[in-house]
Amino acid sequence: MRRRRKTPIQPKSILAPDARTRRRNASEARFRLMGLIAVTIGVLTLVGLLTSILSNGLSSFRQSYISLDVNLDAARLDKEGTRDPANIAKVSTFGYLPLIETALADAMSAKGIAIDGMNAKAASEIISKEAPASLRNYVIAKPTSIGETVTFNLLAAGRMDGYYKGRVTMESAALDRNTSPEHLQLADRLKKAGVLVTKFNWDFFTAPDASDTRPEAAGLGVAILGSAYMMLIVLVLSLPLGVAASIYLDEFAPQNWFTDLIEVNIANLAAVPSIVFGILGLTVFINYVGLPQSAPVVGGLVLTLMTLPTIIIATRAALKAVPPSIRDAALGVGASKMQSIFHHVLPLAMPGIMTGTIIGLAQTHRVHRKSREVRLGPTEFRLLEFLMASPGRVYSRSQLLDGVWGHDIYVDERTVDVHVGRLRKALNFSNMQDVIRTVRGAGYSMEA
């Protein structure tokens, strides 16, 4: 009987990929390609967004000015010739208008510029209504300049400035009652002659707000100062109060129903919407106390109330993070409890305290769902972050209390239901699908 010859098995080289390895390598290559495409799209989107922001916003830092030699006529500005600032201040801005009109007419005549049908009064409309006030402030501050000819860089009117920034055209000017194509032609002639120039607007950072009749004079000065004053008030009030309250509750307060009530209220106040604090400030500080509406102290007091719960919670967490051995060692070498806290525990907890202060000043947290921005309070944001860490996992109320509020802070389990309801309301706008699932008798979970 003839034996069948066995075909020898060819050994496979580890350097020669088989079909399964080739498919896996191709899948990995496609995955890398998709990742590269996603990153490229993200970068291009970011570049487009920054380009749009810069193209629309950078023009605010440049402004058109008209340089005129203005003769400060003593017969108009100081008839008595005393150079007394009190008498000079009696001349209103209307008294400076003829001086500007005359200076513009002289500049046009010197440059050989003439527009048919336009007199000196009509030509002066290319100059901002802020110009007479600028002249008046200069003369009051420097009375000795009366009788002299002084060069002023006066703001051009808003329509003229918009013309050189692409917002105004000859066609739109023909339909605009505040300007005309002739004014734009005059501006072009003055720009060509070097009388009108566009340069960096340093006054944008220091000038106050302006009315609708002179938007070109608006600036950020008052807004920056008001915001700085308000945040200074918040820092001076909320940081000492928040840290002191945290130290008392953690280190000195006895555990009883009163401190438990305080802790529950602090946890609940941290998630109160900012509009509620705004209504409280309007009712108490403005309507009842009678503080002025635009004063930074009102905003500072409201923000202090709004940030205190966040600072207290963050400070208590930072104090609990300090190892107990630090306290024991300080007490063991003879330090008092006050010395151990202020000399040893508080310096180690300071980074966490400052982080909580910064978060408290920012106050709101923003998330996006379906391309729509959703603002959440600190507690709702921490709750969402905790649930999203393990989508699909069911958390009991006690687990959520430990994970979101902490092990050492007593909060009633019903508080979890309140904050879950607020988180649902914020996320489920326009009848969208509920992403938080209630498991009866067990707790809550985030849809995977």
Could you outline the blueprint of secondary structure elements for this entry?
Blueprint: H1 19-57, E1 62-71, H2 74-77, H3 85-88, H4 97-111, H5 120-123, H6 131-141, E2 149-155, H7 158-164, H8 170-174, H9 181-192, E3 196-200, H10 221-252, H11 257-269, H12 274-288, H13 296-320, H14 324-332, H15 337-362, E4 365-369, E5 372-376, H16 378-388, H17 397-405, H18 414-427, E6 436-439, E7 443-446
Antiparallel strand pairs: 1-2, 1-3, 4-5, 6-7
Helix pairs in contact: 10-13, 10-15, 12-13, 13-15, 14-15, 16-17, 16-18
Question: Your description of this structure?
Answer:
It is a single chain. The protein is mainly α. Helix content is 57%, strand content 9%. The chain contains 18 helices and seven strands. The strands form three sheets. Strands 2-1-3 form a three-stranded antiparallel β-sheet. Strands 4-5 form a two-stranded antiparallel ribbon. A two-stranded antiparallel sheet has the order 6-7. A hairpin with a 3-residue loop joins β6 and β7. The protein is extended, with a radius of gyration of 35 Å. The two termini are 67 Å apart. The mean pLDDT is 82.
Classification by helices and strands: mainly alpha
What does the main sheet amount to?
3 strands, antiparallel
In terms of DSSP E residues, the strand content is: 5-15%
- Give the mean pLDDT: 82
List the uncertain runs.
none
Biggest sheet: strand arrangement:
2-1-3
Helix count? 18
Helix content: 55-70%
Distance between the termini: 67 Å
Basic shape: extended
The total strand number stands at: 7
